[in-house]
Amino acid sequence: MNINDFRLAQERIRPYVKRTPLERSETLSRHLDTNIYVKYELFQKTGSFKPRGAFNKLLSLTPEERKAGVVAVSGGNHAQAVAFVAKELGIEAIIAMPENTPRNYLDATRGYGATVDLQPNIAAAFDKANHYEKEGLIFIHPFDDPLVIAGQGTVGLEIIEDLPDVTDIITSIGGGGMAAGVAIAAKSMKPSVKAWGVETVGADAMSQAITANKPVTLAAITSIAKTLGAPYVTQLTLDLVKEYLESVTVVPDQEAVKALVFIAERLKVLTEPAASCTLAAAERLRDNFSPTSNVVLVFCGGNQSIADLCGFLQ
User: Fold this and answer.
1) 180 and which of 51, 233, 240, 262 could share a cystine (Cβ 3.0–4.6 Å)?
2) Which domain holds residue 104?
3) What is the side-by-side order of every strand in the sheet holding 22-24?
4) Is the pTM above the cut of 0.70?
């Protein structure tokens, strides 16, 4: 993948997505003794970055493929994104989702007009999606697709355009598509930028794959960060993360929740643990930053139900 892939994606999806704000946080900057900026991708349509990749993929389909309909697998944000994008483009969509998906994600996905097919777990959801694909539907993979990765990577283009002096970017990792896309796009424009990834314990398929030097499948997703709950990463995303990211930091749920509360109280935005974990990672990585560094935290999503939040705090 190269800069042209991301530029083409940016032009293709521009009429359909928001250019989300990038702002310096005085509170976080004082907290970490450096310059911290936040990319508020939780203000994207559907509440996460996911429509970027979904629009780039679905807009690339042929008329025959659009007529066939699409199927996706997700425990949250990808489901809403594909449902929303499909509705916008007049395409029928089926979303295979695990039974433990939070109610707010199910309601939103159905609200966008998609058919939800509940399965016992995320692995079974992937199996069901493969069944639908064999029946002729177009599978919209959440991360193992260059067009999806290019769409997600437009976040990186916007960061460089809005903050040319950026030194570091911290993104969370589910399957690795956004982290890889942002890193490649940013480094294509500014090679000196350092990209850092973060996962939570119990949703750490990428770090386990890096250790094993091959994709591994998690027996279960035990982290509360459900939107990081990819049961595996693929060889494509593993290779890209190993090439373009400095490291992958794994933080416990407790640190992600502590960061979530701090962000809510001080920045006045409600993130998901999948987004707040970037602050938890920045705290662990702070020795890599100087007082003159310009560090961007990508707040990738904000689809957090109040009911689940109350459960986290208990």
Assistant:
1) 240
2) 51-139
3) 22-24, 35-39, 294-298, 168-172, 194-200, 247-251
4) yes
